[in-house]
Amino acid sequence: MVAEGDTILRLARRFESTLLGKAVAATAPNPRGKAARIEQLDGHTLEGVESHGKHLLLDFGEVSLHSHLGMSGGWHFYRPGARWRRPRSSAWAVLAGGDWEAVQFGGPTLRVSPTARMRRNPQLTRLGPDILAPDFDLDGVIAAIHSDPTRGLGDALLDQHLVAGIGNIFKSEACFAARVDPWRPVGDVSEEELRAVLAAAREQMLSAVETGNRHSFQIYKRRQSACPSCRGPVSSRGQGDANRTTYWCPRCQS
Questions:
Q1: How far is it, in rounded angstroms, from Cα 28 to Cα 169?
Q2: Cα 12 to Cα 55: distance, rounded to the nearest angstrom
Q3: Which domain holds residue 217?
Q4: pLDDT tens for residues 160-198?
Q5: I need a surface site. Which of 49, 86, 201, 213 has the fewest CB within 10 A?
């Protein structure tokens, strides 16, 4: 599963509580980390941490690190000398400072570049509003989603240029919570319904961040199971150009 916005915000807070304000010793045991120029961070102090949707940015002053975990990546935190869950040779990045080591394994994006250049990176500048941001622009996102009225709701929710942070889990979970069919064209989804879907996604994701617990799936991956509400069958099939599986209850979300 792709790490969604709640995972990245939780990760950002972990960096803030462990390495923020500390000079790090940066190493790259795996060649992929060397290619990402991780060792350029050696001796630099972590000055800021930012999450935006599924992206994590670590600010080390003149240089910054950009991480996107995709479906295979992960950051682990260890005390010095603790046993790692994966071989050291597979670590792309190790950032050690004070009483902690942050270790990164895999993922589609890991790069170090000058901070000014990173702030101009189209991969970041084209992102929509972060669903978990304190100043989340709900009205602006509703307008942006409604700009393509023929697009399916579930597909639109995954478009990171419209709203950043929602992935396959919370696409299905939020539509179910709001009792809105994810297959309906957004032009047929009222502003009130879309507001309810986005509010549900934000509430579910923030709850996962605050409690530190994984969201309890109501509909996601419940194919061939009974709907927890009506006990009817749960349906699933691929949606959008990426063919990401959408889960829904045809009875509750009709």
A1: 32
A2: 10
A3: 138-248
A4: 999 999 999 999 999 999 999 999 999 999 999 999 999
A5: 213
